[in-house]
Amino acid sequence: MNSEKLFFEESTFLAEGCRELFIHFDTLRSFNVYESLTFFDLVKIHRLFHVTVVIFCAHLKKFFESEPEIVARSLLPVYQKDIFSEILEIVIDKEKVQSFFNLFSWNPKGGGVLDLQYQPILFADDYFILPMHLFLFSDYLRNTLFLVKRRFFEDNKEDPMLSSLAALLKQHFPEVENEIDYNFRELKGDIDIIAKKNSTVFIFEGKRSLLSGSIHEIRTIHDHVNKAANQLSKISESFRNNQFKKYLSDRLNWDLDSVDTISTCIVIGNRMFSGYRVLDHPVRSFYELANFIYSGEVQCRDGVFCQWLGEEFSEKDLFQYLENDSYHKLVFECMFNRNADYDIRGKVLRHKSFYANFELLFDKFRVNYRDSVSQAVDERPN
Fold it and tell me: Angle 196-199-205 (CA atoms, 0-180°, nearest 5)?
């Protein structure tokens, strides 16, 4: 229970978390989430809870002939704090136990909103209710980071997502720079990434956000996307000023006189809003964008297809992918509206949703893309 090694399920979960957060496992392992409580302490607590639920379900088999797991999820266990603290001391140090309670218990006097997804412990004197399944079957890594309002990379440190994208672009573009500040007369701001080839300039604005866990958090991500769109619009408008182009040319030591095409993109760390457009600026997930630049491949049941126009990646491919939605247009053409109507006392409640016709999408892949031979997995960049 107290092992420093990981079970298979734990390593799989943490590997995906590191991928989403653009961090190394050692960074995640030693990260202090609250006071002296580290994230690896939470891994051990999660492990302890999992074993506890397994034992509890085995016990319930004596009383229920079928589905004791469903019964266990329906019950609200009550624990005595002192006894439960001793159980927690099996996997974490004694001085960290109180930190765990402080972090994951809701304080009605604190003025915050009760959300059991983030704070599932409810105290009543020396007893508390803890629905373990909420902690076990939710993304406790994402939830904890959201709860403590902390990030692995502060604003004044290098963004690993942007650094990775810049490094990938440098393999195909002769001129790439990232994190460029500009201050020209009334024009002030910064450019996350700018890349140039021939007469085309690409400008990327990056926003790393945690995956949303509620409609309110989706709105927050949407606010970030809108902010990025406004920044890109300001930069695009500035390029119409020849004096600003001269200033930026000197700043970058590039020749921007021949530039006649500007393409923009909002890059986000998660998969939310990929394919969306704000003020005509396309939104793309980092890993989707990186895959397009690296291989251009899409894989489906019928094979592997390449989205590039030629055998090698070019700036024309990237322009088509961003400005003409060469991939997402096909996907959206295969989305169809479906309404569900509910009659409630003479009033009709209509729920509008969409479904994807994958057979049609695979046909579009075959028609619009060429066959590709996928590269070996071990050759792909981390």
Answer: 40
